[in-house]
Amino acid sequence: QQQVKQSPQSLIVQKGGISIINCAYENTAFDYFPWYQQFPGKGPALLIAIRPDVSEKKEGRFTISFNKSAKQFSLHIMDSQPGDSATYFCAASDQTGANNLFFGTGTRLTVIP
Amino acid sequence: SQTIHQWPATLVQPVGSPLSLECTVEGTSNPNLYWYRQAAGRGLQLLFYSVGIGQISSEVPQNLSASRPQDRQFILSSKKLLLSDSGFYLCAWSAQRFNEQFFGPGTRLTVL
């Protein structure tokens, strides 16, 4: 059972455009929502994360929007650049285990010049 | 600063052979440690996690096992590899009581 559902599976955006990736979850015990960026052959890198006490968090060109009532969160990449081309994973965590993360299935983003 | 190492970077093994992948963390103490597998074009599946030396929890039944012989060392093993064990294996760490997980560079395992 996929605890975090991510869409779209792939995304093509023009340079300078906005990339939007969406995730949804069911478990209301989740209290931490990170996004990871992964380049081919590399390990995922933590990009930005949010907790449910805020509705938005911005770091540079990356913004997380969080809708607690809808149990959805999204990543917005403003002014997308070819260097942003990578696979992006959303995840969610509760307090069970060792704060284990449940990952979405990933979105392959391609930014074309 | 903290760093996480994995080796080997790539491995090609025949079916039925044993496996040992190693992960070490530097610059922190008593971390939570995790093993994930990522199949081609897929998400990350948590295999094992550990909150301390000798403490291993398994998330999915499988052909693999994990051990934590030292505080900052995490080992993934198998006695006999299956074709389905092929994938990209990632080790991660987090500080106790914190959610942020940081991943190593990964090991690409191909079982032939």
Explain this structure to me?
The complex is a heterodimer of chains A (113) and B (112). Chain A has strands at residues 4-7, 10-14, 19-25, 33-38, 45-50, 56-59, 62-67, 72-77, 86-93, 101-103, 107-112. With 113 residues, chain A is mainly beta. In chain A, strand 6 and strand 7 (62-67) form a beta hairpin. Chain A is globular. The mean pLDDT of chain A is 94. The mean pLDDT of chain B is 93. The N and C termini of chain B lie far apart (38 Å). Chain B has 112 residues and is mostly beta strands. The A-B interface holds A 6, 32, 34, 36, 41-46, 49, 89, 93, 97-106 and B 32, 34, 41-44, 46, 49-51, 57, 59, 90, 92, 94, 97-106, 108.
Topology:
The complex is a heterodimer of chains A (113) and B (112).
Chain A: E1 4-7, E2 10-14, E3 19-25, E4 33-38, E5 45-50, E6 56-59, E7 62-67, E8 72-77, E9 86-93, E10 101-103, E11 107-112
Parallel strand pairs in A: 2-11
Antiparallel strand pairs in A: 1-3, 3-8, 4-5, 4-9, 6-7, 7-8, 9-10, 9-11
Chain B: E1 3-7, E2 10-13, E3 19-26, E4 32-38, E5 44-52, E6 55-58, E7 65-70, E8 73-78, E9 87-94, E10 102-103, E11 107-111
Parallel strand pairs in B: 2-11
Antiparallel strand pairs in B: 1-3, 3-8, 4-5, 4-9, 5-6, 7-8, 9-10, 9-11
**Coarse morphology of chain B:** globular
Q: How many distinct beta strands of chain A?
A: 11
Radius of gyration of chain B: 13 Å
Biggest sheet layout of chain B? 7 strands, mixed
Name its key features:
heterodimer, A: 113 residues, mainly beta, six-stranded mixed sheet, 11 strands, globular, B: 112 residues
In short:
Chain A has 113 residues and is mostly beta strands. Chain A is built from no helices and 11 strands.
